[in-house]
Design brief:
By secondary structure, this protein is of the alpha/beta class. It has a single domain (7-250), classed as 3-Layer(aba) Sandwich (Rossmann fold). The chain contains seven helices and seven strands. It has helices at 16-27, 40-52, 67-81, 104-132, 144-147, 153-173, 219-230; strands spanning 7-10, 31-36, 57-61, 86-89, 135-142, 178-185, 241-244. Strands 3-2-1-4-5-6-7 form a seven-stranded parallel β-sheet, sandwiched between helices. The chain is globular, with a radius of gyration of 17 Å. InterPro entries: KR_dom, NAD(P)-bd_dom_sf, SDR_fam. GO terms for molecular function: L-rhamnose 1-dehydrogenase activity.
Length: 251
């Protein structure tokens, strides 16, 4: 129970990697605020699972690209749970598209959700952490920011910006006891990347010859890394980009 007594906010926590992160944080003892935008029933299902395990949890709706909604959500979460100790900026979109087919609206929406959204959430939650004397902010980034992707130019660019935001925030927020790190997520099959797999989304941890670890990732793999970065086990870790990718970056 490394996170007993802590309160975590997970953006995009209603499904996929976000839901896995919520469950791992709860298993470590944290109360969890599950953010969603449109997937209310899925968010409520996650909340019910966490509550069924004896963990305080609530769902909060907010479009992370809209600052006023983010500010309200963070204030509501702090009021409901008494504090905010951990923020996981997981919400993100990846509308796969040929380079020449990416229009202005798609480009701007991708940057707004993936990069501006993380900034708005960090700023709002960071104010609560500053008053409390510290906290941990974790951005869910991707190895694609380094490796690139033929239909992910806009997505990779937004995550590259997120990596830069990580290092800058570590410097800016360090004096307030707030650590900021990023997880470079590897191949975890979810609804967002179904098109990358020929036969739909494979089972988590299915065998794969594409990475040194020999299998694809699961939401729980990312969640366990989040728990490490949120806990005191990583108290001397900030500004880091931790690859949780089965070794994809070394290929």
């Amino acid at each position: 129970m490394k996170l007993a007594g802590k309160v975590a906010v997970v953006t995009g926590g209603s499904r996929g990697i976000g839901a896995g992160i919520c469950e791992e944080l709860a298993a470590a003892g944290a109360a969890v605020a599950v953010n969603y935008t449109n997937q209310e029933s899925e968010a409520n299902a996650v909340v019910e699972r966490l509550r069924g395990a004896g963990v305080p949890a609530r769902a909060f709706r907010a479009d992370v690209s809209k600052k006023n909604e983010v500010d309200r959500m963070m204030d509501d979460a702090a009021e409901a749970f008494g504090r905010i100790d951990i923020l996981v900026n997981n919400a993100g979109i990846c509308p796969f598209s040929d380079f020449f087919a990416i229009d202005e609206a798609t480009w701007r929406r991708t940057i707004d959700v993936n990069l501006a959204g993380a900034f708005f959430c960090s700023q709002a939650a960071g104010r609560h952490m500053r008053r409390q004397g510290g906290g941990s902010i974790i951005h869910i980034s991707t190895v694609t920011a380094f490796r690139g992707g033929p239909e992910q130019v806009h997505y990779a660019a937004s995550k590259g910006g997120l990596n830069s935001l990580t290092s800058s925030m570590a410097v800016a927020l360090g004096p307030y006891g707030i650590r900021t790190n990023a997880i470079l997520c590897g191949g975890v099959p979810t609804d967002i990347n179904r098109r990358q797999f020929a036969n739909g989304v494979p089972a988590p941890k299915a065998k794969s010859r594409g990475v040194p670890a020999g299998r694809i990732g699961s939401p729980e793999d990312i969640g366990k890394a989040v728990v490490f970065l949120a806990s005191d086990d990583s108290e001397w870790v900030t500004g880091a980009a931790l690859a949780v990718d089965g070794g994809a970056l070394v290929l």
